[in-house]
Amino acid sequence: MNLILDIGNTSTKVAFYDKGKKMSSVRLSEYDRDELEAELSGLVIEKAIISSTRVIPEFILSLLFQRIPYVHVLSYKSRFPFGIEYDTPETLGTDRIAAIAGAYNLFPGAELLVIDAGTALTFEFLSENIYRGGNISPGIAMRFKALNSFTEQLPLISAKDDYSFPGRNTADAIRAGVISGVVYEINEYIRTFEKNRAYYKIVLTGGDGIFIKERIDYQITYLPDVVTDGLNYILEYNAE
């Protein structure tokens, strides 16, 4: 069995894979060594991979290296089944490259646009088996927070389905502006990406993906586990 640790900006996802399939997963906001040991209790873990957008806590490294025969810490120095065309690979987020790897494994030979609607809204591009780079902009929650933080009167609100368009009150004006802005942004990326491409796939993932997937005008594939799928794929690829 494989252990996947995806340490993000706001939470950590712990997933278990066996023979290429996800068996279970849990998302944790805060945890310590005892909690992680409890998750691993009674399991025979042969391989593990750690992907992190921040400094990896020392207790994770010591615990995993003590208990698991093969542990891979994902970085730009890892082996990938495709080329990477990026000027500063050392700054490339491991979650971003894992999302591309997950889609690459599912759709071999396809040109890929992978959209991750999470804390940040990211767009990753792969063509001719080469990762060409990507774009990053603020995610939905970040946009709400920015409007509240950088103004004196705009309230901090959250996303919900029921709002007027155009907004007939301040809360709805913010919701309509932020959510529509994100959707318009995604639609335009897809429209541009589709030009002159014969075989391509557009993949959507991320915590806000389920909220916005029905609002997108184009055919997409919603894969909430594409990052952990990609991490498991990279783990097996590097363990060979």
Would you spell out the secondary-structure blueprint of this structure?
Blueprint: E1 2-7, E2 12-18, E3 21-28, H1 33-40, E4 47-52, H2 58-67, E5 70-73, E6 83-84, H3 94-106, E7 111-117, E8 120-127, E9 130-138, H4 140-149, H5 170-194, E10 200-205, H6 209-212, E11 221-222, H7 226-239
Parallel strand pairs: 1-4, 4-5, 6-9, 7-10, 10-11
Antiparallel strand pairs: 1-2, 2-3, 7-8, 8-9
How would you explain this protein's 3D organization?
The protein has 240 residues and is α/β, with parallel strands linked by helices. The protein contains seven helices and eleven strands. The strands form two sheets. It has a six-stranded mixed beta sheet with strand order 6-9-8-7-10-11, sandwiched between helices. Strands 3-2-1-4-5 form a five-stranded mixed beta sheet, with helices on one face. A hairpin with a 2-residue loop joins β8 and β9. It starts with a strand and ends with a helix. The mean pLDDT is 93.
Structural class: alpha/beta
**What's the total number of strands?**
11
- What percent strand? 25-35%
Reading the helices and strands in chain order gives EEEHEHEEHEEEHHEHEH
Distance between the termini: 15 Å
Main-sheet strand order equals 6-9-8-7-10-11
Biggest pleated sheet: 6 strands, mixed
Rg result: 19 Å
Instruction: Please tally the helical runs, counting DSSP H or I stretches of 4 or more residues.
Output: 7
Could you report the average pLDDT, rounded to the nearest whole number? 93
Task: List the uncertain runs.
Answer: none
**What portion of residues is helical?**
25-40%
Morphology call = globular
Subunit organisation of the chains: single chain
